[in-house]
Amino acid sequence: MVKPAGLRTAFLALLLGAGACSKKEQVVIFATGRSQGRIWAEAAPGSTDKSGGFAVFKSLYDKEKLPRVAVDTGNWFSATPEGWLTRGRSTLTCINAVPYAAAAPGYEDLSLAPQELQKLAEASAVPLLASNLYLKTNSKPPYLSSSRMIEAGGRKIGIFSVIISSPSSPNKPKYLANYKLEKETYESQKAIKTLRDGGAKLIVMLAVINPREKAQPAFFRDLLSKLPKIDLVITDEPSIKKPFKVERAWVAGAGLGMAYAARLTLTLDSSTGRMTDLDWKLLPLDAGKYGEAPAMVKVISGFKKSAAAHFSKQVGFLSAALPLDDRGVSPAADFAADCMRRWARTDAAIIGLREPAAGFSSGTVTVGDLYTAFPLDSSIVFVKIRGDDLERALAGLQPGEISVSGLKLFLKDGILERAESESGALAAGHIYRLAVPDSLVTGRENPLLSSAMEFANSRRYLREVVGWCFSRQKSFGSPAGGRVIRAGDK
After folding, report:
1. Tens digit of pLDDT for each residue in 43-96?
2. For 486, phi and psi rounded to 5 degrees?
3. Three-class secondary structure of residue 365 per DSSP
4. CATH entry 3.60.21.10 includes domain 24-308
């Protein structure tokens, strides 16, 4: 017979045992993405308070008390001259210095040629993950990984990445200039199996979205319904403002632009290792609050110094300003069109009015001015096209949104009535040679590219060609009568 005191002792032991079984553990994942070359903290106009950048993030990361890892969803260079100069190396150097546990190339990073991406990957101590990325030869890039196993708090965490080209038309192969994106579902299934077979208790997907498209929550629900169970999806989709759950899996956003970092606290059941809860916070990278890690400041200072030296180089001189807009005309775009035609020695050139982002002041023109005015990584494409096809293509290009050189466009109420070359009306059967930026000929239904007899990418950047022109001329002249002649506009 058990005495009452013994019963109480046994009951207490049972309670303690139950408490031990339900004990929770926590692991923190910091997530960033779309830094686009913004590696250092900057102050807002009129303020001395600095924010953003990897030195602030490193300080925040080092102060974390819980077991932690950091992941990044890519797009490493596209928004800053410094990023373009290093082709993403400055960002990845900072990612390595934190250090992150894994990083994934973003959709914009796929503008890098395979050789450039290989150099980044081979110089990186952080594995670059891209589960569904293939070369045009249908082989996996040997310098990238499909998945990675890491440990945090004694738990094995499996991480893989998929690049989503079109959330509105998912799970279809996509052919890019240098790569092929395979179906995300099939490649995810393979990565998840590899990680499970390797003993991963938690599975994390990095879902990298094409910045030109938007991934609705319904996209993630549909994707996860086709996959084996995973625990967490971290995405660079900016419209995901707060986490949501799809059955067992959580979907949460990363901090973007190195202005923010997302802090994801995963609560785990100590006995099973399964994720039972998620706490998500978007933390502004405030230098006043978190400070800046001195070692990272030193790394960044080296890039600042080399960038300043490069972008202050003089490429030419302007006698008069070239504004972006002057009473409905863009002298900056017109100048670029003339430059393309002159450099390529073609009959004509066409450029979109959205290609230049800024004009030029009079006086010295620097490399930095070129990057500011032409931030897109556009290269010049040579096109051969018959006259009648050219006129139809010009109408399809929305003639009010382009500038031309060697051509005159006659519009009525915004619609193309006719186009002329410098020698008169376009001859239907004559073959014209054009120079255009590749940004103007992208898209499956592009009217110019679909009508061309031949086309070839020069692989020469538009901004370099504009710089070449600045080194040879100091002024800009507009043809008599203008380039785009409008009648009947209200």
Report:
1. 887 788 899 999 999 999 999 999 999 999 999 998 888 888 899 999 999 999
2. -105, 140
3. strand
4. yes
